[in-house]
């Protein structure tokens, strides 16, 4: 079956530094990938997505990179702020409908 | 728009009891889904619906039923609660089931404890 995993369960960064969160996926047929942010006690919040026909996509302070050769996804957050502290999940859109398969998450802690 | 709403926010059940978790969206979204999130884990898909009258199973459907009689509502029913169903449940919806506009919006979650 499909699986999405993360290299590191926790990440601590200094405020103002850049953060990089990594994710590996196993289904080479997946064509849509999403990063979600989840704050304590809340539902996941969409950050950015990327389709398999792209290698890179940029948003406001965030960039997602997709390497299909090694089935790797990363989220880069520029100038990390205390409000960025949360758990970040990568997810892939598997076969059929809009079903998402989530990784286990990385907890990002921003040190003031 | 209220977005995706879920009720209740918290619930405690005894083993064997049944209950329904409510989910509603006011965005006229085609696709709706239910996920569960266990401690330290990502979300896992329980059931989903690509439109009114259409439902299907996800990754972990056992012990749950769903129905989609209207576009807005997608209730999740626990038939006979078990401690293994202690979890946080999230409902999500997207404009399309597949295509360009399939960003999923999540509700705030229902925290369920089964004793």
Description:
Chain A is mostly beta strands and 112 residues long. Helix content of chain A is 0%, strand content 54%. Chain A has no helices and eleven strands. Chain A has strands at residues 4-5, 10-14, 19-25, 32-38, 45-51, 56-58, 62-67, 72-77, 86-93, 100-102, 106-111. Chain A is globular and about 40 Å long. The model of chain A has no long low-confidence stretch (mean pLDDT 88). Chain B has 115 residues and is mainly beta. Chain B is globular, with a radius of gyration of 13 Å. The mean pLDDT of chain B is 93. Chain B starts with a strand and ends with a strand. Helices cover 0% and strands 49% of the residues of chain B. In chain B, the strands form two sheets. In chain B, strands 2, 4, 5, 6, 9, 10 and 11 form a seven-stranded mixed beta sheet that branches. A four-stranded antiparallel beta sheet of chain B has the order 1-3-8-7, with no helix packed on it. The chains are: A mainly beta (112), B mainly beta (115). Chains A and B meet through strand 4, strand 5, strand 9 and strand 10 of A and strand 4, strand 5, strand 9 and strand 10 of B.
Write the layout of secondary structure elements.
The complex is a heterodimer of chains A (112) and B (115).
Chain A (H helix, E strand, L loop, with lengths): L3 E2 L4 E5 L4 E7 L6 E7 L6 E7 L4 E3 L3 E6 L4 E6 L8 E8 L6 E3 L3 E6 L1
Parallel strand pairs in A: 2-11
Antiparallel strand pairs in A: 1-3, 3-8, 4-5, 4-9, 6-7, 7-8, 9-10, 9-11
Chain B lengths: L3 E4 L2 E4 L5 E7 L5 E7 L5 E9 L2 E4 L6 E3 L9 E3 L8 E8 L10 E2 L3 E5 L1
Parallel strand pairs in B: 2-11
Antiparallel strand pairs in B: 1-3, 3-8, 4-5, 4-9, 5-6, 7-8, 9-10, 9-11
């Amino acid at each position: 079956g499909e699986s999405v995993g993360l290299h590191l369960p926790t990440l601590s960064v200094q405020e103002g530094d850049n953060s990089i969160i990594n994710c590996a996926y196993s289904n080479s047929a997946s064509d849509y990938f999403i990063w979600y942010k989840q704050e304590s006690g809340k539902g996941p919040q969409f950050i950015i997505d990327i389709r398999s026909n792209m290698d890179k996509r940029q948003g406001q302070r965030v960039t997602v990179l997709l390497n299909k050769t090694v089935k790797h996804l990363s989220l880069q957050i520029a100038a990390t702020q205390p409000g960025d502290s949360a758990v970040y999940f990568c997810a892939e859109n598997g076969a059929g409908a809009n079903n998402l398969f989530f990784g286990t998450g990385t907890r990002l802690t921003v040190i003031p | 728009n209220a977005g995706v709403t879920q009720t209740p926010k918290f619930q405690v059940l005894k083993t064997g009891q049944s209950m329904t978790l409510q989910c509603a969206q006011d965005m006229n979204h085609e696709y709706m889904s239910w996920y569960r999130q266990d401690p330290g884990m990502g979300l896992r898909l329980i059931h989903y619906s690509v439109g009114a009258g259409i439902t299907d199973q996800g990754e972990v459907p056992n012990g749950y039923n769903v129905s989609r009689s209207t576009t807005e509502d997608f209730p999740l029913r626990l038939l006979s609660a078990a401690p293994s169903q202690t979890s946080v449940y999230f409902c999500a919806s997207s404009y399309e089931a597949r295509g360009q506009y399939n960003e999923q919006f999540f509700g705030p979650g229902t925290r369920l404890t089964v004793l």
